């Protein structure tokens, strides 16, 4: 019995969501306004371009095409300076436990991330070789909540979408998994991710017996 387990990266495997937030906040401050943590929830799972468009809308700021590209590059440089410091210590609690268990049970393991920095981050934390298939922001044309990223990941695993399980921390990502007719597991608060099939605060709440049931389903 082989199922496909597809993991989002930012906020699921590693807590890079905090670095994205810091970098966007700095950019907003530079433009004369601020971003709240609540607003940041809406940026999770959202592509780099779309995120900047949304942020500029919040601040009522209009930029020329050239300025837009400049700020987007600046945000990524800032973000990458945080990434440069990362190591295996930044893998979120009990994520290795679940990954090891899935490997032991010979399950399909893939990454489905909107980030163009995903491969770099996986390398930094030493998880690159755990994933049989990696689909990131460089591989998709339609961003979450479109299901494309997860459908390509399923294809890479050679497993039908209905036999896939997605771990996601973003509203848009859970919607994408649901649209792909995959089982969605929200990592975060029930309040934000109530549309997921299951919600856990983090991986420490996920027992291997639960994973075993998903495999048998
Ligand atoms: C993930 C994060 C988003 C980020 C997006 C693009 O989905 O949750 O906050 O904007 O990836 O990331 P990138 O590394 O390509 O800027
Ligand atoms: Mg995420």
Offer a quick outline of the entry.
Pfam families: Hydrolase. The chain is an alpha/beta fold.
Summary keywords:
single chain; 217 residues; alpha/beta; six-stranded parallel sheet; 46% helix; binds 6-O-phosphono-alpha-D-glucopyranose; binds magnesium ion
Folded structure, characterized:
The chain is of the alpha/beta class. About 45% of the residues lie in helices and about 10% in strands. The chain contains 10 helices and 6 strands; from the N terminus they run βαααααβαβαβαβαβα. The protein has a 6-stranded parallel sheet with strand order 3-2-1-4-5-6, with helices on both faces. Helix 8 (about 170-180) links the parallel strand 4 (about 165-170) and strand 5. Helix 1 (about 15-30) crosses helix 4. The chain is globular and about 55 Å long. The N and C termini lie close together (about 10 Å). The mean pLDDT is about 95. The structure holds 6-O-phosphono-alpha-D-glucopyranose and magnesium ion. 6-O-phosphono-alpha-D-glucopyranose binds near residues 76 and 115.
């Amino acid at each position: 019995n082989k199922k496909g387990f597809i993991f989002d990266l930012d906020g699921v495997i590693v807590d890079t969501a905090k670095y994205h937030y810091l970098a966007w906040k700095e950019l907003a401050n530079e433009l004369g306004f601020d971003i709240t943590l609540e607003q940041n929830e809406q940026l999770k799972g959202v592509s780099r371009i779309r995120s900047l468009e949304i942020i500029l809308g919040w601040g009522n700021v209009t930029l020329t095409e050239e300025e837009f590209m400049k700020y987007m590059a600046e945000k990524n440089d800032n973000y990458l300076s945080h990434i440069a410091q990362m190591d295996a210590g930044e893998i979120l609690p009990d994520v290795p436990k679940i990954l090891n268990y899935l490997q032991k049970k010979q399950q399909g393991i893939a990454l489905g991330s909107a980030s163009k920095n995903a491969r770099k981050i996986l390398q930094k934390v030493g998880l690159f070789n755990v994933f049989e298939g990696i689909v990131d922001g460089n591989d998709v044309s339609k961003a979450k909540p479109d299901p494309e990223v997860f459908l390509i990941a399923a294809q890479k695993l050679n497993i039908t979408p209905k036999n896939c399980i997605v771990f996601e921390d973003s509203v848009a990502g859970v919607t994408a998994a649901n649209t792909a007719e995959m089982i969605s597991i929200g990592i975060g608060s029930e309040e934000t991710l109530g549309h997921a099939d299951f919600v856990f605060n983090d991986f420490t709440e996920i027992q291997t017996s639960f994973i075993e049931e998903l495999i048998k389903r």
